[in-house]
Amino acid sequence: MNETILETGDNVMISPDLTGFSNWIDGIVIEVEKNTFNGIVISAETKDRNVFFGRRDLFQTFKNGEVCLQ
Known about the structure:
Elements: E1 11-14, H1 16-19, E2 25-35, E3 39-45, E4 51-55, E5 59-63, E6 66-67
Antiparallel strand pairs: 1-2, 1-5, 2-3, 3-4, 5-6
C-alpha cells in the first residue's frame, strides 16, 4: 500500500474510532513517531486543542480539497 507520508503541520481528518465522536474531525499533525511496536504513530491537535494520537491508519489526508477515505 502506498500511503501519503505525514509531516508536522499537515491537515488531517481523525477517525471516529480514535475520537469516539460520530464523524471524522479536522486536526493538524503535531508529531510523527516511528514506534518499534506500533509502526508510525501520529499525534494531531484539533481546533479546540484536544490532542489525539494513534496508528497512521486512523488519520486521513486531504487531496485536492477532498478527504481521502480509502
